[in-house]
Amino acid sequence: MRYISILEIIIAMKKIFHCMKDRGTISLDSFDYRKYVI
To answer: Which are the contacts of 8, defined by CB distance < 8 A and separation ≥ 6?
Structure first.
């Protein structure tokens, strides 16, 4: 696995929080976290 920079983590977290804001809640089962894992 390559090194993931702090900036990439922040961007991924912003996307997750934006998704949570839109849904009001988030399901880890339906959320595709693999797109943030290289």
So the answer is: 36
